[in-house]
């Protein structure tokens, strides 16, 4: 057993061989990592490269153009904050337009649009081709004046509760469909309208059209109604009023108890879920005592 050599005991010759093998491995590794056997000189055709780059750039421009939001014809009178910003208008320019419209004034030409908003010539040139004004604007000035007669005095106006659909159609913007809707809505009530403001409930009538109608017509023989006392009425009574459902009626009664009675009908605006755009119509049916 003593004559058996350990497994890891080498002779001098074996050690020299192992050392030489390690040196060779290191040399080959260095050659592998630091010597490029596949290097070849690459020639570039500069003219073709320039043409290729131009094609890439043109494709990029086409892609960017396709991503731009498309502009469709629109009436500049109805430009909103969002619409104005997408067109490139500044906040001041948009505010000038909105302030002008709040006065119930209309923009009827590209020149007038620039006068009101004070947009630059370059922006106007870019967006004005998309302006689409109502057809009546293209008519003669005389016809426009005829369409917009000055508001008559109360005694000169026709009774809205007796007017016919044909008479309503004399108003610019009121055709067969809208005039029929007005008459149909009026006839839902036995004696017609209580007040002019009920025109707001006719589907399709804009504030501008309503203004035109009441400049020539008005309720001269209002429907007689028995008003409901807001401070004593119950839920079942309140729901008989237009635009008031059971939920809103409960909130009205609840708010009345908290306030210990309403002092003004305008206090209804504080009621949860109250339709503020219909408050003037609802007030027609209510009283405080």
UniProtKB/TrEMBL annotation:
Keyword rRNA-binding belongs to the record: no
Transmembrane feature ranges: 18-35
Pfam families assigned to the protein according to its UniProt record, in alphabetical order: HHH_3
Keyword Transmembrane: yes
Keyword line: Membrane, Transmembrane, Transmembrane helix
InterPro entries: Endo/Exo/Phosphatase_dom_1, RuvA_2-like
Descriptive protein name: Competence protein ComEA
Organism (species): Flavivirga aquatica
């Amino acid at each position: 057993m003593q004559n058996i050599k350990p497994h890891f005991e080498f002779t001098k010759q074996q050690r020299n061989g192992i050392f030489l093998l390690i040196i060779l491995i290191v040399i080959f590794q260095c050659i592998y990592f630091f010597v490029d056997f596949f290097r070849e000189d690459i020639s570039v055709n500069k003219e073709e490269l320039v043409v290729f780059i131009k094609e890439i750039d043109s494709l990029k421009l086409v892609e960017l153009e396709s991503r731009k939001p498309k502009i469709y014809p629109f009436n500049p009178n109805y430009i909103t904050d969002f619409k104005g910003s997408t067109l490139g208008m500044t906040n001041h320019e948009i505010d000038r337009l909105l302030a002008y419209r709040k006065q119930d004034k209309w923009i009827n030409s590209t020149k007038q649009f620039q006068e009101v908003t004070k947009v630059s010539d370059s922006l106007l040139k870019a967006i004005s081709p998309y302006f689409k004004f109502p057809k009546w604007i293209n008519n003669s000035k005389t016809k426009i004046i005829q369409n917009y007669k000055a508001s008559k005095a109360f005694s000169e106006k026709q009774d809205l509760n007796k007017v016919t659909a044909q008479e309503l159609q004399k108003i610019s913007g009121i055709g067969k469909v809208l005039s029929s809707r007005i008459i149909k809505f009026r006839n839902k009530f036995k004696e017609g309208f209580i007040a002019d403001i009920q025109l707001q409930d006719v589907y399709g009538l804009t504030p501008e059209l309503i203004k035109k109608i009441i400049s020539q017509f008005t309720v001269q023989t209002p429907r007689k109604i028995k008003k409901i006392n807001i401070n004593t009425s119950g839920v079942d009574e309140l729901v008989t009023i237009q635009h008031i459902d059971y939920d809103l009626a409960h909130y009205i009664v609840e708010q009345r108890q908290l306030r210990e009675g309403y002092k003004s009908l305008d206090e209804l605006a504080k009621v949860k879920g109250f339709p503020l755009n219909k408050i003037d119509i609802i007030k027609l049916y209510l009283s405080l005592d």
